[in-house]
Amino acid sequence: MNDFDVAGLATSARIVLCCGSGGVGKTTTAAALGLLAARNGRRALVMTIDPARRLAQALGLTELGTEPGRVPGEFGTGELWAMMLDTKRTFDALIEKYAADEAVRDTIFANSYYQHLSSQLAGSREFMALEKVHELARDARFDLLVVDTPPSQHALDFLDAPTRLFELFEGSFVGALLQPYRVAGRIGFGLFRRSSDAVLRVLERLTGFQVLADLSDFFLAFSGMFDGFKARSREVTEMLHGDATRFLLIAAPDPASLRAADAFFVRLSADRLPIGGLIVNRVHDAPGLLDGASYQLSGADLEAVGRIPDARVDGRLLTERLVAAYRDHVCAAALDESAIRDTELARHDIGVRRVPHFNRDLHSLADVAAFADSLT
Amino acid sequence: MKRPLAEQTLIVVTGKGGVGKTTIAAAAARRFAAMGARTLLTTQTPEPLEAAFDVRLQYQPQPIGERLWVSSLDAQHALKEYVERHSIVPVLYDAFLDSKALKQFTEAAPGFEELMCLGKLYDLVTSANYDRVVFDAPATGHAALMLRVPRVIGKAIRGGPLHRNALKLELMLGNDAQTAVITVALPEEMAVRETIDLRAALRREANIHPGPVVLNRVRPQLFTVAEMNALAALESTGVALARMVSTAKARYELSATQALHTAELQRRTLDPFIVPEVIRQRHDVPALLDAVGAALAPMLGERP
């Protein structure tokens, strides 16, 4: 449960991947890390998925933010860059790269299953995020990439995505789908129909035919690109295990988001991926509050509130409110702390940094800087 | 304009990840049951409900209180039921259902799992076993996808059992006398924005008229401006008072920020039902659900 050196991480790592459930301040944390690195003379690129509008504006991410752009501001010799990840466009670029010819490329682009896969299928966003990271990791303009990972429905999609996609392509079902095509070329579904086994006939009956036609069209066009994609995927895996790569877990101090962080931790450990630490945002800070907390005002304090010379202020009522707010705060601080201590992470040697609740939205560059200050 | 629920049988609860959908769904279900309605609480993602009720959810509804049942919606299981109903040669389907091929197909085919789960939901809603079926739905992005699946599939597949199935689901979801979609938000920028976007998407893409908005975990403003000014002007305070003034300031700022986001919803005529944050009973699940349920009473159509 020891603290860890967040600023040191920002000055030594090459790739930092921020993992956590939605709404825990991942984007702000990623931006603050980039800012810390820039202040230390590094050239940092923050890659984000879906930032809050005003934070996006602060980072200079307007409509055209899908390529790296400089964030305005003075960072000494360092530079801060930011960009938004565009899943669909990244996927399209990969197809462009690996498609044997224009006909194959166009077939894939026009295929409705591809359109679904590239924009919506669970895991494809994550897959493409990694693909873009891999591409930019070799870009000489940047010393550090900070990646704000997609808020996954299932937190682990981010890591499983490439494997799942390949299993899908290579699986027996797809093989079965492609088989008649491989034998017969593109003669048509008459032959496919005759040669299909009971399984396919059941599916056909249940689903109607177009779904199958679309799927097999897609996989047929795609089959020529497997090798390119697989080589690419191995390189991405190597990158994630690299010496200068760190996974940073981000959470809020509530049980659900800490459970998600735990799930990440277990999974990352199983894959021997390097964990930088846990950052818990919006913690009710309690220095001096919890020890011998007294929920009363007495003596001079009580008199001071009672003597407030303002007709609109009722001293007795204000005293009650002060006590109520204080009790809420102390109680929330205790709950935050016990939620953090209850995690699996707490039982291991993972550094934990608590960032206090700012009690307001953080959306200007000055806010990001204030957040960054609290990390040093 | 703030309209409480009417007699809808299906109550879908959705919202951004982490806004407390499960808490709202569970509290509403308990309250319905307490009001005398036979209520089923069901979900596709059982873990949060299992943690809340300390029970292992099953596909078959099981009772966990008076007039209250819980269950989970599992696509593979729902598909098995569906196939059995349409089957001619049951033996064939058994072999087929256990196959890895089927699992891969349902994962690959767009919207297939969602369609199967919605189909099961339809069966539960129309079974006459329950007066209310509360569906603790997936988070915003996935929920929007799920709720428009019937429409998309109904268009893509012309004819056959799947087409008819999709059509009746679209009718169920689109009928706001039968289905209420509750969107849960937090008084935070991103959650409010997602709520507004989700509601627009449901209207546009799924022909669903979203129901009430719930703003969860609100910390009501405790202090007036005059009080904060007076506290700031206090000279030489003792340690206890100094700490209280500093927590008061934090609370004032937080509540003021939250009020801005509430106003943003109201500006878009999405006047939310407010659920205050439950701090002291956060770890006592029944007490938490009772407190949230009481706050939801106006939305659930209870007269004060």
Features:
heterodimer; A: 376 residues; alpha/beta; 8-stranded mixed β-sheet; 8 strands; B: 304 residues; 12 helices
What is the radius of gyration of chain A computed over CA atoms, rounded to a whole number of angstroms?
Answer: 26 Å
Instruction: Indicate the overall shape of chain A.
Output: elongated
SSE string of chain B, helices as H and strands as E: EHEHEEHHHHEHHEHEHHEH
Number of helices of chain A: 17
Put the structure in a nutshell.
The complex is a heterodimer of chains A (about 375) and B (about 300). Chain A is α/β, with parallel strands linked by helices.
List the helices and strands and how they pair.
The complex is a heterodimer of chains A (376) and B (304).
Chain A: H1 6-12, E1 15-19, H2 26-39, E2 43-48, H3 53-58, E3 69-70, E4 79-84, H4 87-98, H5 102-110, H6 112-119, H7 124-137, E5 144-148, H8 157-170, H9 172-184, H10 189-195, H11 198-207, H12 210-223, H13 226-240, E6 245-251, H14 255-270, E7 275-283, H15 299-306, H16 315-341, E8 352-356, H17 365-375
Parallel strand pairs in A: 1-5, 1-6, 2-4, 2-5, 6-7, 7-8
Antiparallel strand pairs in A: 3-4
Helix pairs in contact in A: 1-2, 2-17, 4-7, 5-12, 7-8, 9-12
Chain B: E1 10-15, H1 21-34, E2 39-43, H2 46-53, E3 62-65, E4 68-72, H3 75-86, H4 90-97, H5 100-108, H6 112-125, E5 132-136, H7 140-156, H8 161-174, E6 179-185, H9 189-206, E7 213-218, H10 225-233, H11 239-267, E8 273-276, H12 285-296
